[in-house]
Design brief:
The complex is a heterotrimer of chains A (about 260), B (about 290) and C (about 230).
Chain A: E1 12-21, E2 24-34, E3 39-43, H1 50-57, E4 65-71, E5 77-79, H2 85-93, E6 96-99, H3 113-123, H4 129-142, H5 159-171, E7 177-181, H6 189-206, E8 209-214, H7 217-223, E9 226-231, E10 234-240, H8 241-246, H9 251-258
Helix pairs in contact in A: 3-4, 3-5, 4-5
Chain B: H1 11-26, E1 32-33, H2 47-56, E2 62-67, H3 74-87, E3 90-91, E4 100-104, E5 117-121, H4 135-144, H5 148-161, E6 172-174, E7 178-180, H6 190-193, E8 199-204, E9 209-213, E10 219-221, E11 248-252, E12 259-263, H7 266-274
Parallel strand pairs in B: 2-3, 2-4, 4-5, 5-8
Antiparallel strand pairs in B: 1-9, 6-7, 6-10, 8-9, 11-12
Helix pairs in contact in B: 1-2
Chain C: E1 4-17, E2 23-36, E3 40-44, H1 51-59, E4 66-73, E5 76-79, H2 85-94, E6 96-99, H3 111-120, H4 126-139, H5 144-147, H6 156-168, E7 174-178, H7 186-201, E8 205-209, H8 213-219, E9 222-225
Parallel strand pairs in C: 3-8, 3-9, 6-7, 7-8
Antiparallel strand pairs in C: 1-2, 1-4, 4-5
Helix pairs in contact in C: 3-4, 3-6
Classes of the chains: A alpha/beta (about 260), B alpha/beta (about 290), C alpha/beta (about 230).
Chain lengths: ~260, ~290, ~230
């Protein structure tokens, strides 16, 4: 069960993942890979297992069976669930990132925007106040937050700004792989559009691989190169995003696609 | 003294505390839990320091006790008398003569020697307590050496005030590994902890923790490369002895609100006056 | 004899509509087609015959049930029908371009950036990419005041011209054009025809669906007939 097999060139590979919560099968025999610079969307309805899958891939949850292996910047392969806790935490602070649906879970609400963005740098040993501040200001600008708000508390930010602050905080260490759980969930439509566009351009510019969980097919179509469709813990269809959405083969995929409201 | 063990604590308790002290010395700056006993004074009055002192005192030791630098405050007097009665050890007010010094909130101005031990009274041993309320989380942070949060706090201070707002109990990095609360000594005293020849022991009775800094261990106050730590003191000379490099207390001298700055370390000030130094506000020698 | 840029062999495709009780509709049966560099092949046939389906299959947008779709990519023949998604993405980025019937663009992105993205994805400098995008938009008679606006509010014809600019700017060696002049007036249709001829002169292989017979006659070298399998009910 402890396997350290990563597909050639891939950043992360999962094989035969299975997980039960009591009698409920949350994941059934799931495989996936993610390569550098590509965006993979995991779509499905509530209870499909998509968020569970994300949590297993990122090491937050352990599977009952199967394995998740990762390859770091140095090319070293390791099993995500059997690596020592400090190593996994260090990975999450450097080469990996996790953007939560609710940005408040990932931000320190009583620390200034600059402090929030600079924290990962300080955690990695950055000790020059001026440099940390300059880097934080740069990232605020990158996510389209006015850099003059660097000393403001997140309490004073709107929902969209909080999400962008979370993204800045995550990207400051230039991760190569970012997990996103419904990053635009709960935001106003116009705010969503702006955020999606920001994510698109950042991912392309910084060559970041993204594993993105969403129930919104339109978000998947917009952002993802590849898509995994889940139902009841199983992967029922996977492939090129436009192919799966325009030429859905599985009955459930066809149902999902035909249910999308078009403005 | 009849009916009590030497230095009040029973031998088993002393063994337990000494074991904790050995562990603490082996991992500088790491907080070691210990079974804090009921002492004849309440929590918040130095029970941790007293238990550590009681466990290390020997019949040949000479004990000095200070409170905010002074030998003659009520608490210092009480604790010194407590050990005089329960251990029968020699006591002194002279730093240089003492082998064990128990202190509340100050480090003596006189540099300590390798044959001396200083015992600090600690109210809150956890340096991250105000930033992270969960003890489970702070234990994990110490275990993994993840102290980014503390630097975030310093960053916030600079962003908000232009300087660090911590004036006492200023967090330090011990032996390059553990973040430690040096007890509420003024930040001015922090440099004295760095590579001190004496053994430094820290006791927190209410929180039930002991920690230590072995002799000649590096103790660095947290700072930024471009904003290095520097010790701050009131920009005055001692009114009694004229010292310009000691930590000062501000004293209200009379009913008209006249203020006087005097050395907080009473022994240090007395020695300087004996040596002939005179300050601008020297009080007339009253009948003592 | 110029090289074969694209060759489809024995393509078969049925649609299975599970939401209609599993209704099976065969669309493509044993289709074979070769296109050479510098050649323009026009797909011809009645409405519903499967021309668009064939085109989308060539692009990898539809999955065929059988057959091969060989594309000359970096001097090798890559089978789009069997390739993994990342390979298809790489082929699309460099070699195989597609202009759909309707513009599907990201909300809130300026027309110029929609077009420039193609070049930026290949690591071109942003300012240079935007410059070339603007040039192409101008050629297609999109006035400069619209370049910085998102195309969502443009007219159908304007949107299609943005779509065309995006399709042509990459200089892909193989282009698939689905009704490129459908919503354009004569003048703009003529501009598009010129662009197609220029592409051909650059050895681009082109497969197109043209409902405007004049344009088709101007640009196409030959016709490829797609016949419907089922007679329309």
């Amino acid at each position: 069960m402890i396997a350290e097999v990563v597909a050639p060139g891939a950043l992360l590979s999962a094989r035969s993942l299975a997980l039960h919560f009591g009698r409920i099968a949350a994941l059934r025999d799931v495989d996936m890979d993610i390569w550098p610079g590509e965006v993979l969307a995991i779509v499905g309805e509530s209870g499909s297992g998509k968020t569970t899958l994300l949590n297993v891939l990122s090491g937050t949850l352990s599977p009952d069976c199967g394995s998740v292996a990762c390859r770091n910047a140095g090319g070293v392969v390791a099993n995500v669930h059997s690596m020592p806790a400090p190593a996994l935490r260090a990975l999450h602070r450097s080469e990996w990132g996790f953007v939560q649906q609710d940005p408040r879970r990932n931000l320190r609400m009583n620390v200034s925007a600059g402090g929030n963005v600079g924290e990962r740098l300080m955690a990695q040993g950055a000790r020059h106040y001026g440099n940390i501040r300059a880097e934080a200001a740069r990232w605020l600008e990158t996510v389209e937050i006015d850099p003059s708000r660097i000393d403001d508390l997140p309490r004073t930010f709107s929902g969209g700004m909080l999400q962008r602050l979370q993204i800045a905080r995550t990207l400051v260490t230039r991760p190569s792989l970012v997990f996103m759980d419904e990053p635009t969930g709960g935001l106003d439509v116009s705010v969503q559009a702006r955020l999606l566009d920001l994510i698109r351009s950042l991912v392309a510019r910084l060559h970041i691989a993204v594993v993105l969980v969403t129930h919104d097919i339109a978000v998947a179509r917009l952002l993802a190169d590849r898509i995994i469709v889940m139902q009841d813990g199983s992967v029922i269809e996977t492939g090129l995003t436009d192919r799966v959405l325009d030429d859905a083969h599985h009955p459930y995929t066809q149902l999902l696609v035909s249910s999308v409201l078009t403005a | 003294m009849e009916g009590y063990n030497f230095a009040y604590l029973d031998e088993q308790t002393k063994r337990m505390i000494r074991r904790a002290i050995l562990k603490a010395v082996a991992v500088p700056g790491h907080q070691v839990p210990f079974g804090s006993r009921e002492m004849p004074l309440p929590y918040g009055w130095g029970t941790g320091g007293i238990q550590v002192t009681a466990s290390i005192l020997g019949a040949d030791d000479t004990l000095k006790v200070i409170d905010q630098g002074a030998d003659d405050t009520t608490n210092a007097v009480s604790i010194r008398r407590f050990f005089a009665r329960t251990a029968g050890v020699r006591t002194t007010t002279h730093t240089a003569e003492a082998t064990v010094i128990q202190t509340r909130h100050r480090v003596p101005e006189t540099p300590l020697r390798q044959d001396q031990i200083i015992v600090y009274q600690v109210p809150q041993p956890e340096p991250l307590s105000r930033l992270e309320p969960s003890r489970v989380q702070t234990r994990i942070m110490h275990a993994l050496g993840e102290y980014g949060l503390m630097h975030v706090k310093l960053y916030e201070d600079f962003a908000r005030y232009g300087q660090v707002s911590i004036s006492y109990d200023y967090p330090v990095m011990v032996n390059g590994r553990h973040l430690m609360a040096p007890s509420p000594i003024p930040a001015f005293d922090n440099p004295k902890l760095d590579r001190m020849p004496a053994l430094q022991l820290f006791g927190a009775g209410r929180e039930k923790r002991i920690y230590a800094v072995p002799p000649f261990t590096s103790v660095r106050s947290l700072d930024f490369d471009d904003h290095p730590f520097h010790a701050i003191r009131a920009p005055h000379a001692c009114g009694l002895c004229g010292a310009t490099d000691s930590y000062l207390d501000e004293v209200v001298a009379d009913d008209r609100g006249r203020r006087l700055f005097v050395c907080s370390d009473t022994d240090h000030c007395a020695m300087r006056r004996e040596a002939g130094h005179v300050g601008a506000d020297s009080l007339p020698e009253a009948a003592e | 004899m110029s090289t074969v840029a694209l060759r489809a062999e024995a393509l078969c495709k049925d649609f299975v509509l599970h939401l209609q009780g599993g209704l099976r509709i065969p669309v493509l049966s044993e289709i074979g087609l070769s296109v050479h560099a510098g050649e323009c092949v026009a797909l011809a046939g009645p409405s519903g015959a499967g021309k668009s389906t064939l085109m989308r299959s060539l692009y990898g947008n539809y999955r065929t049930d059988a057959g091969r779709i060989l594309v000359r990519h970096r001097d090798e023949m890559v089978d789009i029908a069997a390739a993994d998604p990342r390979t298809v993405i790489a082929v699309r980025r460099e070699t195989l371009g597609y202009v759909s019937q309707f513009l599907r663009a990201v909300p809130r992105v300026a027309a110029r950036d929609v077009v420039a993205e193609v070049l930026i994805a290949r690591s071109a400098a942003e300012s240079e990419a935007r410059g070339r995008a603007s040039e192409l938009l101008l050629r297609l008679n999109i006035p400069p005041r619209l370049h910085g606006l998102p195309p969502a509010t443009f007219s159908g014809g304007e949107q299609q011209r943005v779509n065309l600019a995006r399709g042509f700017i990459g200089g892909h060696p193989i282009l698939l054009l689905d009704e490129p002049t459908a919503s354009l007036d004569t003048a703009n249709a003529s501009v598009v025809a010129e662009m197609i001829l220029e592409a051909k002169a650059r050895s681009t292989a082109i497969v197109g669906i043209f409902h405007d017979l004049d344009i088709r006659d101007r640009v196409a070298d030959r016709l490829f007939h797609v016949s419907p399998i089922q007679e329309a009910a």
